[in-house]
Design a protein that fits this description.
By secondary structure, the chain is mainly alpha-helical. The protein has one domain. It is built from 10 helices and no strands. Helix 2 packs antiparallel against helix 7. The longest helix has about 55 residues. The two termini are about 35 Å apart.
Length: about 260
C-alpha cells in the first residue's frame, strides 16, 4: 500500500470536513449536483476513450495505491551476479539461477533469450518492444485521469448554468430558489474537488509509477545486452549504476566491496 496516497486522501478529507464543520456536512450533499457533475464527467470519458480502456480504469487506479516497484539496487545486484556467472561458466550456466529472480519476469525473459542463443538485435528488439507496449499502456491510464480532471470542472460549470437557469425560472417561487442555487454552487464544488483532489493527483502518481518502471526496464535491458556482449562484470555494474542516485550508487558499491 502506498502510504503517501493514503496520507494525502486522509488529510484532504479531514481538512474538508474540518473547514465545513461536521454538523454542516449534510448541506453539502446534493444528489442532482453529484449526478450532473460525475455522470457527465464519466459520460465524456466513455466518448473520449474506448470501452476497454475505460473498463480497465480500475486496474490502472490501483497502481496509485500500491508500491510494488522492484528495488533498482536489487536488480543491478542480480544482473552483476549473472554477469559474473556468465563470465566464469558461460551463458548456459545462468539458467540454473533463474529461479532466484522469478519475481522479475521481464529480467527472466531477457536472460532466457540470451541463454537460448538469440541474436543481440533480436533480444534488444523484443525487450524494447515490450517496454514500449507497457509504457503506452501506462500513458493511456494517466491520460484517462488527466481527462477526468479536465471534464469534472467543465461539468461542474454546466451544472452551475443549469442551476442558475432553474433559479431564474423560479424567482416567483421563493421555496424553489434555494434548491436551484444549491445545484448551481455545489456542482462547481464537486467538479473542483474531483479534479484537484482526486483525478489530477492520481494522474501524477501514475506518471511517477510509470517513470520508475521504465527506468527499471532500461536497467534490465542495458544489463542483459551487456551480458550477451560479454562485458566485464565491473563494467556492467558501472553502466547500470549510472541510472540511480549518488546515494544508491554508494550503497551498491559497499555491497560489492
Amino acid at each position: 500500500m502506498d502510504k503517501a496516497t493514503i496520507i494525502g486522501l486522509c488529510l484532504g478529507i479531514f481538512f474538508l470536513i474540518f473547514g465545513i464543520g461536521i454538523s454542516s456536512v449534510g448541506i453539502f450533499i446534493n444528489t442532482p449536483s453529484l449526478l450532473i457533475t460525475y455522470g457527465g464527467t464519466f459520460g465524456s470519458l466513455f466518448i473520449a476513450f474506448t470501452l476497454e480502456q475505460v473498463l480497465n480504469t480500475g486496474k490502472v487506479v490501483k497502481n496509485a495505491f500500491t508500491t510494488k516497484a522492484d528495488d533498482p539496487l536489487e536488480i543491478i545486484t542480480h544482473i552483476v551476479k549473472f554477469s559474473e556467472k556468465a563470465r566464469r561458466e558461460g551463458l548456459l550456466a545462468m539458467e540454473k539461477e533463474l529461479a532466484s529472480i522469478e519475481h522479475i519476469p521481464f529480467l527472466i525473459k531477457g536472460l532466457q533469450l540470451v541463454i537460448d542463443g538469440s541474436d543481440l538485435e533480436i533480444v534488444r528488439t523484443v525487450l524494447t518492444t515490450e517496454r514500449s507496449y507497457v509504457e503506452d499502456r501506462h500513458r493511456v491510464g494517466a491520460a484517462i485521469f488527466d481527462a477526468l480532471a479536465a471534464y469534472a470542472p467543465a461539468w461542474g460549470m454546466i451544472g452551475t448554468i443549469i442551476g442558475l437557469i432553474l433559479m431564474l425560472r423560479s424567482l416567483d417561487d421563493p421555496g424553489a430558489v434555494g434548491p436551484a442555487m444549491a445545484v448551481a454552487l455545489l456542482t462547481t464544488l464537486y467538479g473542483a474537488i474531483g479534479a484537484f483532489f482526486i483525478f489530477t493527483p492520481i494522474a501524477n502518481k501514475l506518471k511517477i509509477r510509470s517513470e520508475q518502471e521504465m527506468m527499471l526496464k532500461d536497467i534490465m535491458i542495458g544489463g542483459i545486452v551487456a551480458i550477451q556482449s560479454g562485458d566485464n562484470p565491473r563494467m556492467v555494474k558501472e553502466k547500470l549504476v549510472s541510472y540511480v542516485s549518488p546515494k544508491e550508487k554508494s550503497s551498491i558499491a559497499d555491497e560489492h566491496e
